[in-house]
Each structure stands twice: as C-alpha cells, then as structure tokens.
Fold:
Amino acid sequence: QKEVEQNSGPLSVPEGAIASLNCTYSDRGSQSFFWYRQYSGKSPELIMSIYSNGDKEDGRFTAQLNKASQYVSLLIRDSQPSDSATYLCAVRPGGTSYGKLTFGQGTILTVHP
Amino acid sequence: DAMVIQNPRYQVTQFGKPVTLSCSQTLNHNVMYWYQQKSSQAPKLLFHYYDKDFNNEADTPDNFQSRRPNTSFCFLDIRSPGLGDAAMYLCATSRDNGLTQYFGPGTRLLVL
Structure:
C-alpha cells in the first residue's frame, strides 16, 4: 500500500463546476496535510495546509480533513480553465522531523470551457 | 522578493559526466531539501539539510551527493549520471520547525 494515494485522473469538469480531489494516507499518526498545485513543467505551488479535522476555506478552495478515515480532500469551487493542473497531496507522517513530507503521485485536473 | 532560486533551469549532460545543480534562497530558512521528480510521478525526497546536519534518505543512490556551504546555498552533485537520472530536480526550503515547504522552479536534467 502506498503511503499517500490519489486517483491519478484525469478529472475533467466544466468551467464553473466544483472539482473534488481526494487523498488517503496510511500513517494514522500523520499530523499535517498539504495540497500543492503543479502546472506542467513547473514546480509545486502550495495552495492549502490543514492540521485539524474539519474544513478550511481559502477563497475558492476548501480543504477537508478526516483523521479517523485517514482522508483529506480539496474542493475547488467555480472551477476555471486556469485551474487545470496536477494537484499533489502531501502528508507529514508522524514521528518525522524538519517538515519531511510524503507526496502522492497527483491528480490531473482539466477544466474545460 | 524572498525566493528560492535554482540554476540552471535546464541542464544537458552526457552519460557518466558529473553534473552539479545549485539552489539558493533568500528566505533565511534553516532547512533545505532536494527532490527528484520523474514524469507523472510524485516528488521523491533525496536528502535534506537542517542547518549543516545532512540527512540522507535510505534509498537515495550513492551517485547523489549534496553540499551546503552556508545557509543560503545548497548543491546537488550527480557523480556519474545515468539515463535513469533524467528528471526534474526540485529544491525546497522550510523555516525552523516550520512545516510549509517552498519550492524553487526546478532544474530539468537531460542525460544523453
């Protein structure tokens, strides 16, 4: 079992719709969770971080965390073509130091006009 | 603006010819990381420095070495690049005990 799993997609949504991206992780002791966006040929860019169970909203983005189910998701409201990218889920496993992260392989999102 | 800078952005080398990639940061972060990312794969951590303390991942090949001469700079040395080392190499930094990692633009390495 991979430590951090994401559906590789591609996930295709129409412009203006809600895109829902999901991630599961294996280490129950994990403390911190991140969503990065990566455009083709570019480096990852942090979108959201979440540390506690529940929802965290930032503009059109909402991160949801459920530690009991070992599940974290990212919702993108009013999706735009510029949101088309690969979304990487990253998890800080329990017991590690210095912010070491484990990444999922990413979900490709395509927003079509 | 504070940032993470990587040079060069594109590097072409020959099979077996040593290559050095550089990373610099103006964020004054204690921790610097090197990741390897192959096409359609997750970034894979190679090693990281906490200040001058070097931390190697268990599965990082000996072919990969790193140097951090000061807080601002970190280098990735690939002693004898093979075709399988062609990838994007990402440098990232984080603040002392901070969790958020900030990535540089990456260096794309091509091995001929």
